Amino acid sequence: MSRENKLFGDKAFELLKDLERSSQTIPAFDDDGVRQVLEEIKAIFEENVAQASSYNSSGDRSLWPLLNYRHAALQRNKRCLLAYLYERSKRIKALRWEFGPIIPGDIKQALCEPEVQFFNNYSKSLAAYMCIAGCSQGQGIDLTNNLRPPKSLYIEVRCMEDYGKFELDDGELIHLKKNSQHYLPRAQVESLVRQGILQHIA
Amino acid sequence: MNFFPNYYSIEDIFVTQEKVECKVNTKLQRMGFLDAGAEGDDLEPGRSINLPLWYIKELKVNNAYFTVSVPDIYKNVHKAVCEAETTHIELGRLHPYFYEFGRYLTPYDRNHVIGRIIFETMRQRVRHLLDISKNDGQMAKSELRLDNIETKLHEAGVRTNTQYINWLQMTGNKILISELVEEHQKKRKRDRSDDEGDSLPSSKRVTL
Amino acid sequence: MFIQDLKNDFYRHLVGKRILIIVNYDIDAICASKILQALFQYDHMLYTVVPIMGITGLRRAYGEHQGDVKYVLLVNCGGCVDIVELLQPAEDVTFFICDAHRPLDVCNIYSDRQVCILGDAALEENIPAFETIFHDSDEEDDDQDQSDEEDEEEVHNDSGAGDSDGDEDSAQRPAVRPKLTRLERHEQRILRQRARRQWESERDRIMFEYTQFSYYGRSTALLIFELAWKLSKDNMDLLWWAIVGISEQLLLGKIESGAYTLELEQIQSHVSRLTNKTNDQNTMSASKISFENDLHLVLYRHWPVTDSMRYSRYASCQLKLWTLRGEKRLHELLLEMGLPLVHARQTYSSMDLVLRKEFYSMVERLAEKYDIPDIVYGTFTLSYGYRSRYAAADYVYALLAIMESVKKHKTPEDCFMEASDALNRQHKQLLGAGIDNAKLLHAAIFRQVQSSLEARQVHSAGSFFYYVLQEEHAFFSYPYALGLLAKFILRGHVATSRARAAPDLPLIATCPLDATQGMCLLVGIAPVREDSPKNFFGKAFEQAAQKSKTTLLQDFFEPSVVQLRQSDLTRFLDALTVLLT
């Protein structure tokens, strides 16, 4: 093992640091970093196996501390890597609640293929659960709605960007155009407010 | 916030990445790579080297290879603790993870003071933390004074405080834009204005 | 057609429907739309509010929303243009117009269903009778080709009827023809043509008289407030908005002070009724509207007295405060009032309480002596909490400043929204910022007036004055600010001018809009001596543009504010000079 990489685990730590630095959004999945960590794990493992087998044959305990250190490093790498994936999955779950079932393209690009899969499955599970949750009422409950207790059935909203036509439950078509102001049923526009297309004015 | 760090806790990983000064007790074969000043392949006894916490915590406290030396920062704080004047210490400058780091080092401290120090420090400072949480917006300048846990506590305090005020003023049930979306929009706007530079046409004209 | 019974024919008719509210870019309109929104919210009626500026904006806004809505409400816009002609709406769309602009377009007035004007026909002045301006389609028959040309100039063009007449015509003609000799027929035709021409010239005269002056009717906000009152849904906030609406009309000189005074009485009765209705009048924190005599001094509650005096058009021009002598006179006045300079120079709110209480009476007492009798006027103040006390005029100036605070990343629409937010009591900080902006604006106006008068930049073209700002200006490139500046300058110029005719001459002020597009903004201001706010510039601009063959953008609903190409300006002014002499 070369001297530059003397302490091990630095690469894996970098991954987490990157993730932590952008605490709000998801940075692009660091394919390269993850591969390098995996390689490091593999290298450590192979070296340890080689030395452990030589210990088995010779019984020389002088390398034990080194074996020990390497093993700790290997565990460390593993922990960092798993934490990296876990944290990302947590953020992906949050995306579903904040952005709704469709996430913006540039965020989607930051995800790797399995993560996209994960998002879709999570979204499906959530939808399925929401269907069951309100079964007694027939329709199911949209759990992403009404995150705060509603005070009124209708709210005053201001349109922040050109959205186009928006259809209400009763078939009424509303043209949401930037800088227009509307009075609409709260339940139906809450998600648009959450997505920043409308602004609730109170 | 995590007071009981789990395996996936990023914060705990950050803490355990910190380095601790250790003295080498015996000759350790082929571990010279840990010592930047070493000449041979092996680690010589008597040298002091910095080892990451994640390794040290795998070792027994009284292991034969290394002796952990407790950082000075805790000794300095000790005096302040005795004088009950901890609120003015810039903990964040001393160590960004003052409490958690200290917690890991407790077993290695032969005098058994670290445990008491971090407990006392927190006890004395938490009241002050509560006070400054009540007035938000003044955080920027005193950022260095708080360590990681304290910063988080402070953030939580400010947040709760605003929520409480909102509730009192009955403005709590306004639907807000989701934080993630807002962040995303800001980023997009930044990107866009970077692209366009300042060549934006003056759209201020009466074109309603 | 006019709708007089707003409660039954307008509001009840709309309950449960979705409605599109198109709001013009002025304070009266904003206030009216706020009141309307409050009403619609009570009844859970879905609505959409779109702010617009000018006719292009109106057409665009309607174009975007057409198809989705069946009811369109136009607030302070659209009354003076033929809505059906302009927007080409589908048959089932109904327009309600509440517009303070006058004269109303005759086609809107005589529309039988699609266009409804909210208001009382009896209050309108000299609307031409139907027969005098619309002709029966039978008369068109003979001189089809001739009338075709003329039709284009006519306000009314019933194209559908014209076509069917043509068919009828050809069927009837053979039957009539043999009975008349060629000569007789010819004579008859000439006679008919003459009668027709006579009628047309008469119609043109009537139409010209009707549309010659542009002026303003009753405040829309007040009209809508009365609807709220009749629906028993009025409250303090709505009333305050109505007051702000009518105050704007007064302060911007849209209505005569006489008309304003007439309305005051009615508003006062609303105020006392609503004050008695609310029970919490004892607590200081409740909002309270009170009527009082106040001073025509800009924002004086938020400024030092000296500044406010200097920056107020009326006081400043009467005392000529931009001159050294004027300054002396101001000091004399303050001395006689017994107001120490130390106090006069600090913000009103930090003045001694005793002085503050006596300030009004001190000024009033000396008003005659210093030739500023009109400085006193009746107005309303709103107070809530212990510290907030605003005069209606404060609101008007603050909102004006907000509406024209367009910046690079702040579109006019944003400003409109901000202004409408500032009317809510929850957004006090917006109003505060608006007041600060207004101070900047008025200070800038005063400085501009001072330097322009000193440099003698107001020129006379014989029958009118003109004043040309050479460069784009952060404040004056907007219609209202330019209007305020122009009024100040005209008054100031008249006050210093020795010419006897000066008070009878109007002023035209112009300021470049956008250097890159080479457009400039032009406003026409009525003469100082003229008390009636009727403004003939709309028509005059139109004719001058025709004569000088310049393209004029009469897009604003205020016809006396126009845009034109910078390079055409001289030619246009020349034509105007010829026209007005």
Automatic annotation (TrEMBL), chain A:
Task: Using the record's annotation, list all stretches that form the DNA replication complex GINS protein PSF1 C-terminal domain.
Answer: 151-201
Q: Which SUPFAM superfamilies does this chain map to?
A: GINS helical bundle-like
The record's subcellular locations are: Nucleus
Q: Which UniProt keywords apply?
A: DNA replication, Nucleus
**What Gene3D superfamilies is this protein classified in?**
1.20.58.1030
Annotated InterPro entries: GINS_A (IPR021151), GINS_bundle-like_dom_sf (IPR036224), GINS_Psf1 (IPR005339), PSF1_C (IPR056783)
* Keyword Secreted recorded: no
Signal sequence residues: none
* Primary location class: nucleus
Give residue ranges for domain GINS subunit: 43-130
Q: Which GO terms describe its cellular component?
A: GINS complex
GO term, biological process aspect, one: DNA strand elongation involved in mitotic DNA replication
Could you name the domain of life of the organism this protein comes from? Eukaryota
Q: Does the keyword Nucleus apply?
A: yes
Q: How does it assemble?
A: Component of the GINS complex.
Similarity-based family: Belongs to the GINS1/PSF1 family.
Job of this protein: Required for correct functioning of the GINS complex, a complex that plays an essential role in the initiation of DNA replication, and progression of DNA replication forks. GINS complex seems to bind preferentially to single-stranded DNA.
Protein name in UniProt:
DNA replication complex GINS protein PSF1
Natural source organism: Drosophila persimilis
Q: Which gene holds the coding sequence for this protein?
A: Dper\GL16122
Automatic annotation (TrEMBL), chain B:
Q: Which GO terms describe its cellular component?
A: GINS complex
Pfam family name, one: Sld5
Tell me where in or outside the cell this protein is found. Nucleus
The record's principal subcellular location, in a coarse class, is: nucleus
Q: Tell me which UniProt keywords the record has, alphabetically.
A: DNA replication, Nucleus
Example GO biological process term?
mitotic DNA replication initiation
The GINS subunit domain, residue ranges: 84-168
Q: Where is the DNA replication complex GINS protein PSF3 N-terminal domain?
A: 8-59
* Region listing for Disordered, in residue ranges: 186-208
Entries under PANTHER family matching the protein: DNA REPLICATION COMPLEX GINS PROTEIN PSF3
The record's subunit annotation is: Component of the GINS complex.
Give the family, as the similarity comment puts it: Belongs to the GINS3/PSF3 family.
Q: What does this protein do?
A: The GINS complex plays an essential role in the initiation of DNA replication.
| Protein name per its UniProtKB record | DNA replication complex GINS protein PSF3
Automatic annotation (TrEMBL), chain C:
GO CC field: DNA replication preinitiation complex
Give the highest taxon in the source lineage: Eukaryota
Localization, per the record, is: Nucleus
Q: What is its main location?
A: nucleus
Pfam families documented for this protein: CDC45 (PF02724)
Going by the UniProt record, its keywords in alphabetical order are: Cell cycle, Cell division, DNA replication, Nucleus
> What biological process terms from GO does the record include?
cell division; DNA replication initiation; double-strand break repair via break-induced replication; mitotic DNA replication preinitiation complex assembly
Q: Where is the stretch described as Disordered?
A: 135-178
Q: Where is the composition biased (Acidic residues)?
A: 137-155
Q: Which GO terms describe its molecular function?
A: chromatin binding; DNA replication origin binding; single-stranded DNA binding
Q: Which InterPro entries match?
A: CDC45
Family the UniProt entry places it in: Belongs to the CDC45 family.
Q: Which PANTHER family match?
A: CDC45-RELATED PROTEIN, CELL DIVISION CONTROL PROTEIN 45 HOMOLOG
- Put simply, this protein is called Cell division control protein 45 homolog
Query: What is the scientific name of the source organism?
Result: Drosophila pseudoobscura pseudoobscura
